[in-house]
Structures are given as C-alpha cells and as structure tokens.
Specification:
81 residues; mainly beta
Length: 81
C-alpha cells in the first residue's frame, strides 16, 4: 500500500497485491493474489478483482474483474490485445 491510498472497511487483499499511490478502495472489496492497482484508480463497494489482474492508472472499477485481465478507463473495461 502506497502514499495517499485509502482502504475502507472489510477489504481482503491477497498475497503480493500492489496498491499504488492515490488508490481508493471502497468497502468490501476483494483483490486476488499478485494483482496490481495503478495510481489513482478507484474500486467501488463490493467489487472483486481476481488474481493476476492489472488495473490501469485512473481506472474506475464498477464490476467484478475475472482472473488475468488488464482493465483500463472509466468505467474499467478489458484492454483488448
């Protein structure tokens, strides 16, 4: 967890999770092992982020994210390869 990041109540962070500066996690958020949440991103109440997920800088996660995805934007969407 980095500078100016906020984590609200009842969050569950897996092993090796990286929370960048300025991230805001609402309550009851779950983040799976080895996931990374980029600078300034936000996750709304009750969302689950899977294992090995990358959430891009400034993204707003409004729904659950399955394992292995990279998501970007507002609202966060899968980055197409």
């Amino acid at each position: 967890m980095n500078t100016a990041a906020t984590l609200d109540h009842d969050n569950c962070l897996g092993v090796g999770v990286h929370i960048s500066p300025g991230v805001h996690l609402a309550g009851n958020v779950g983040i799976g092992d080895r996931s990374w949440v980029g600078i300034g991103a936000s996750v709304i109440q009750g969302c689950d982020i899977g294992h090995d997920v990358i959430v891009g800088a400034g993204a707003v996660v409004t729904k659950d994210i399955i394992d292995g995805l990279t998501v970007v934007g507002v609202p966060a969407q899968e980055l197409k390869k």
